[in-house]
């Protein structure tokens, strides 16, 4: 293989990290690695499904849906984020956010409130909410109004402007936004933390040779041992990449099955 292409279905604020990873792999593997950075994540997913992209950072729900449908994809590694609540594990959360001046204090206060989710293919913004409602024994009518925002950052913007009352935001997306816009910390409040969930993994298409896939996996899981890689991880608020197996994503399968009981 003379060139290698990767992409990401994560929030747009993760793109700088993806570019840095592409550059790191280019140096480590001694071959050109490029980032397929189509503006829409849907277009990026099409490129991956067609085999025009070999490596992708997928939502955990997207991964299990593809894997369970028989798609030729295998896990590579998953990030371990650098914050105490992740406890050194490849997990993340869905942070339920409201405006700082909102009277809403706990999830139960959201009955009748307006709610935004990013998109129906998302675990952190959509399915985990449905799963949580199912655990509470309520359905989608729990909320007074539900809108699809299209992206976590758009959901967050709608909370900030008062267009909607609350939303579940991928904790890693929220932490990146707070790093980029520290003034936002005084504008929102987290009233509930849903999870933990297995964090979105990096996956590789199976037509990549096993030898080369092993090389790439090694680059990921040993990145923290290399000074250049460690600096890249720190800039992305990560500690390291951890090896993961398909069974590590069974909690997402279980939450998805529970979510089927609730329509939003």
Q: What's the order of the H and E elements?
A: EHEHEHEEEHEHEHEEHHEH
Q: Supply the CATH architecture of the largest domain.
A: 3-Layer(aba) Sandwich
Reported for the largest beta sheet, the result is: 6 strands, mixed
Strand composition percent: 15-25%
Shape from CA axes? globular
**Total helical segments:** 9
What is this structure, in a nutshell?
By secondary structure, this protein is α/β, with parallel strands linked by helices.
Describe the structure.
With 264 residues, the chain is an alpha/beta fold. The chain folds into two domains: 4-82 and 199-249, Periplasmic binding protein-like II (D-Maltodextrin-Binding Protein, domain 2, 3-Layer(aba) Sandwich), CATH 3.40.190; 91-197, 3-Layer(aba) Sandwich (D-Maltodextrin-Binding Protein, domain 2). 38% of the residues lie in helices and 23% in strands. The protein has helices at 15-29, 41-50, 60-68, 123-136, 152-161, 171-180, 210-221, 227-235, 250-259, and strands at 4-8, 33-35, 55-57, 73-81, 91-99, 114-117, 145-148, 166-170, 188-198, 202-205, 238-242. The strands form two sheets. The protein has a six-stranded mixed sheet with strand order 2-1-3-10-4-11, sandwiched between helices. A five-stranded mixed sheet has the order 7-6-8-5-9, sandwiched between helices. The protein starts with a strand and ends in a 5-residue tail after the last helix. The mean pLDDT is 96.
